């Protein structure tokens, strides 16, 4: 890299639009959306789509709700031409969808394009030619007058050929290619010259498309350009003002949003931002940004994983796991503090509440996602995430101190393996740690009166069946007394919690008992059974069985 990049690169000049209004504008309704996946997105692929993939993508775009779809560049190849013909001849275009095609400002290409469209009910024909100084002076070697003449002669050709197909409802579109690098005064001159040829009306508008062919400036400067153009071009009430952002600076989404605030009516882009170099505008991103501000975008992404699968198949390119709204990891928190906040917010939230969740700007369920991936556990995770997964997947509502205790067990496991733990991994570890998978249902009898309960029966203690009996103020007190007498150990219950895990004929109850054993160790025990007393007894046995293991680990740690 250069120590002085200014010796090679120049800063983008400001527009000096001192009375700009876009900073105070609010996006309160969706734009006209136009998908360019099948043209701009397709030409950027390592292996362009065949007809079968193009048809699958077209059908997906229709299902999402796009009403304008740029389906190809018919003069570019036979596949592009044949796909356009297939759509028309097989009546594949819904009545509320308008197809769009692109052509350069060259007469043979224009004529071939209209030939491909013969018989189409309605279509947008998109004309473009380069206008930026570097293109005029270096690539095309044409003067400003010659650029204007090129645009106007082809605009007239559009009118002339379209008149030969009166059965089609035509809309004309013009793009001053590299608008983002063209002087505003010259852009206006070309645009006004083209619309003077087409003579659009408020009832029959044309489209003027302003592309950031290469993104050079910050989004606010492009917004100034759009607002300037919006104010100054002629016949504005007869024009749909469109923008086509690219993403070279990584700010395509911001560019599009600020352009809408600056007066644009329409956006062109691709699903998940596919396109040349760093890509086109990601229309999904902009649409869902609107959605989480309370504005329905008019597009349906309620099954976003299915849409992603289609896009990955058609483009033969993966969608990044961190891609906004759709990536595998975008709703996932590994951080312990994040997980704790999410768990508490989910617990506090009531159905119908405004969505106000930490670290989750959108409800994943609105996009067809479950909450399963919201919290995942690795070495950075904490008790909140572990508790969330055990509750959401297995119905366990761990008391806070049990969460802390078990998180230490999980952390040791993570330190040893270095791998992520799934909800199933946590459940298996929980069962193993608290002896749930090996617990035997106790066989006992309860009796007593006048506030005293007697218990007697066969109980599994330390892996052996033992006959125990005792009395107390309740079943737990009676069993603890019997167990303490039989084992010769001091056992005291510090905390107790229980809840139903499931409902119906196969309902289970979970009991959590915090014990102080031998006045030296505090441990939790967990029991599960269809009977809550049996679950409580199993929890006490679980805690006692863990006390020696806890003691040995403490000695080993020292």
Automatic annotation (TrEMBL):
**Hey, which pathway is this one from?**
Amino-acid biosynthesis; L-leucine biosynthesis; L-leucine from 3-methyl-2-oxobutanoate: step 1/4
The record's annotation in InterPro entries points to: 2-isopropylmalate_synth_dimer, AIPM/Hcit_synth_CS, Aldolase_TIM, IPM_Synthase, LeuA-like_post-cat, LeuA_allosteric_dom_sf, LeuA_N_DRE-TIM, PYR_CT
- Its main localization is cytoplasm
Q: What is its EC number?
A: 2.3.3.13
The coiled-coil regions, if any, are none
Q: Where in the cell is it found?
A: Cytoplasm
**Taxonomy, superkingdom:** Bacteria
**Residue intervals of the Pyruvate carboxyltransferase domain:** 31-305
- Binding annotation for Mg(2+): 40, 244, 246, 280
The record lists the catalysed reaction(s) as: 3-methyl-2-oxobutanoate + acetyl-CoA + H2O = (2S)-2-isopropylmalate + CoA + H(+)
Q: What class of enzyme is it?
A: transferase
**Which stretches of sequence are listed as region Regulatory domain?**
437-558
The UniProt keywords, alphabetically, are: Acyltransferase, Amino-acid biosynthesis, Branched-chain amino acid biosynthesis, Cytoplasm, Leucine biosynthesis, Magnesium, Metal-binding, Transferase
Needed cofactors, names only, are:
Mg(2+)
Which molecular function terms from Gene Ontology are attached?
Answer: 2-isopropylmalate synthase activity
| Function per UniProt | Catalyzes the condensation of the acetyl group of acetyl-CoA with 3-methyl-2-oxobutanoate (2-ketoisovalerate) to form 3-carboxy-3-hydroxy-4-methylpentanoate (2-isopropylmalate).
Subunit annotation: Homodimer.
Which HAMAP family does the record cross-reference, listed alphabetically?
LeuA_type2 (MF_00572)
Give the family this protein belongs to, as stated in its UniProt record.
Belongs to the alpha-IPM synthase/homocitrate synthase family. LeuA type 2 subfamily.
Protein name according to UniProt: 2-isopropylmalate synthase
Species of the source? Acidovorax bellezanensis
């Amino acid at each position: 890299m250069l120590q002085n990049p200014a010796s090679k690169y120049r800063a983008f000049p400001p527009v000096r639009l001192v009375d700009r209004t876009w900073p105070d504008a609010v996006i309160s309704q969706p734009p006209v959306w136009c998908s360019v996946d099948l043209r701009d997105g397709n030409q950027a692929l390592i292996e362009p789509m065949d007809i079968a993939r193009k048809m699958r993508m077209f059908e997906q775009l229709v299902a999402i709700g796009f009403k304008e779809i740029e389906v190809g560049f018919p003069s570019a190849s036979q596949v592009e031409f044949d796909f356009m013909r297939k759509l028309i001849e097989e009546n594949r275009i819904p009545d509320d969808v308008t197809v769009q095609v692109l052509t350069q400002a060259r007469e043979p290409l224009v004529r071939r394009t209209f030939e491909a469209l013969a018989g189409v009910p309605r279509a947008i024909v998109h004309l473009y030619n380069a206008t930026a100084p570097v293109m005029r002076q270096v690539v095309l070697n044409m003067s400003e007058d010659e650029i204007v003449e090129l645009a106007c002669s082809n605009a007239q050709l559009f009118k002339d050929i379209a008149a030969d197909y009166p059965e089609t409802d035509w809309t004309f579109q013009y793009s001053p290619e590299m608008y983002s690098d063209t002087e505003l005064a010259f852009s206006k001159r070309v645009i006004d010259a083209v619309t003077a040829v087409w003579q659009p009306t408020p009832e029959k508008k044309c489209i003027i498309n302003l592309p950031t062919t290469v993104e050079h400036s910050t989004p606010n400067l492009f917004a100034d350009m759009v607002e300037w153009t919006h104010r100054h071009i002629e016949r504005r009430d007869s024009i749909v003002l469109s923008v086509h952002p690219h993403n070279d600076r990584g700010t395509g989404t911001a560019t599009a949003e600020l352009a809408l605030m600056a007066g644009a009516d329409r956006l062109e882009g691709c699903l998940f931002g596919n396109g040349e170099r760093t890509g086109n505008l990601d229309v999904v991103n902009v649409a869902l940004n609107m959605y989480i501000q309370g504005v329905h975008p008019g597009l349906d992404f309620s099954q976003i994983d299915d849409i992603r699968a289609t896009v990955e198949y058609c483009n033969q390119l993966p969608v990044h796991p961190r891609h906004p709204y759709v990536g595998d990891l975008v709703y996932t928190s590994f951080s312990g503090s994040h997980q704790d906040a999410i768990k508490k917010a989910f617990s506090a939230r009531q159905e119908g509440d405004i969505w106000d969740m930490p670290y989750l700007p959108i409800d994943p369920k609105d996009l067809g996602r479950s909450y399963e991936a919201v919290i995942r556990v690795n070495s950075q995770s904490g008790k909140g995430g572990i508790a969330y997964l055990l509750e959401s997947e297995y119905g366990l509502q761990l008391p806070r101190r049990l969460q802390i205790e078990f998180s230490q067990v999980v952390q040791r496991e993570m330190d040893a393996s270095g791998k992520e733990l799934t909800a199933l991994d946590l459940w298996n570890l929980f069962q193993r740690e608290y002896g749930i998978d090996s617990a035997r249902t106790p066989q006992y009898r309860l009796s007593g009166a006048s506030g005293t309960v007697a218990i007697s029966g066969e109980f599994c203690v330390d892996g052996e069946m033992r006959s125990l009996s005792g009395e107390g103020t309740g079943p737990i007190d009676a069993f603890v007394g019997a167990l303490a007498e039989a084992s010769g150990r001091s056992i005291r219950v510090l905390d107790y919690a229980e809840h139903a895990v499931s409902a119906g004929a196969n309902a289970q109850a979970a009991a959590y008992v915090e014990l102080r054993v031998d006045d030296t160790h505090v441990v939790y025990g967990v029991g599960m059974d269809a009977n809550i007393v049996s679950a409580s007894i199993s929890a006490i046995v679980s805690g006692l069985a863990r006390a020696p293991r806890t003691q040995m680990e403490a000695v080993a740690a020292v």
